[in-house]
Amino acid sequence: MQIRQPIVAVLGHVDSGKTSLLDRIRGTGVQGREAGGITQHIGASFLPSETIKETCGILYKKLEQAEHKIPGILVIDTPGHEVFTNLRSRGGSAADIAILVVDVNRGFQPQTNESLKILQSRKVPFVVALNKCDQISGWRKSETKFISQAIKEQDASIQTDLDQKIYDVVGTLSILGYQSEAFYRVKDFKSEIAIVPISARSGVGIPELLSVLVGLTQQYLQKRLNQEEKEPRGIVLEVNDEIGLGQTANIILIDGTIKKENSIVVAKRDSVIVTKPKAILLPKPLDEMRDPRDKFKPVSQVDAAAGLKIASPDLEGVLPGSTLYVATNDAEIEKFTKLIEAE
Ligand code: GTP
Ligand code: MG
Ligand code: NA
């Protein structure tokens, strides 16, 4: 069985620290270049296994022993601002699993609840990252990147304070129908949501957050990530006219493979288009698609899951959010056209 990389959506209220968390993992500075520090588009970036290994440190040993190891993670960054509900839904609908980011000092906020509803309606499993622990008043900075260790180094009153904040989240989630616990107290990861205190600023807790996430994925999502007999499909994020490329679409390939000689089948407002990509372009690993450090690389083939760009003059007028299929022959073109027409 061959499993693909999971698609991990990062959701939460505005300024809870979603982009900062990804910047910390990738070693990028995307958040600092956003207008007003606000995310306004869906982002995507690929975290290779080496990055996960480096981030998790000694915790990776156990993950490495799994029967089916994931070949990296495709992370989807979403905006938390209230006006971007449609983008949050789009990010949530592509997700296999999610990180719900909560500001530890603010607890659940309106778009935290909204994000949770999106995950709930699509039955997406998730982990809570309780961010900005460094901002808990009296929090002592420590050398360790492991939150379980950092907590031990805090004064007793700070430990109590953090526990209280964790129980506030447990209480809120319980009202919403979820059982949850601090990750170090979780007994059954299948029925309890794990809450991981972190700081995107200092990096503390990120090893545990990623370990819990990867562990869950490798244990419970194998079937979903198995690529046998999966229809090759993706979702269109945005369509642009780019200098030197013409019409392009940024897409997330969710399942399957896309090759230059394949046909893309996708809906326009009142028709279905079938087009062959003029070019397929792939961002470098760890580069955020909407703010890459390097140029996208032209490739002849991409396997899911991936964020990529396709260029083709026929893409003009394709609506963001549309499902896109990849066909290898006429019969498939017909099948996918009918599928789209039936939607
Ligand atoms: P939107 O995408 O606009 O919804 O925001 P976001 O959730 O991506 O949050 P963002 O990464 O933009 O961070 C918001 C602010 O919080 C920035 O000023 C960050 O520097 C700050 N911030 C994020 N994480 C932490 C943290 O762990 N500790 C502290 N002290 N500040 C943080
Ligand atoms: Mg952001
Ligand atoms: Na922000």
Automatic annotation (TrEMBL):
Source superkingdom: Archaea
Cell cycle among the record's keywords?
no
Q: Which GO terms describe its cellular component?
A: cytoplasm
Q: Which UniProt keywords apply?
A: GTP-binding, Initiation factor, Nucleotide-binding, Protein biosynthesis
Residue ranges constituting the Tr-type G domain according to the UniProt record: 3-221
Q: Where does GTP bind?
A: 77-81
One GO MF term:
translation initiation factor activity
Per the entry, what this protein does is: Function in general translation initiation by promoting the binding of the formylmethionine-tRNA to ribosomes. Seems to function along with eIF-2.
Q: Which family does it belong to?
A: Belongs to the TRAFAC class translation factor GTPase superfamily. Classic translation factor GTPase family. IF-2 subfamily.
> Mind telling me what this protein is named?
Probable translation initiation factor IF-2
- Organism of derivation: Nitrosopumilus ureiphilus
In the record, what lineage is assigned to the organism producing the protein? Archaea, Nitrososphaerota, Nitrososphaeria, Nitrosopumilales, Nitrosopumilaceae
According to the record, which residues of the full protein are present here? 1 to 343 of 593
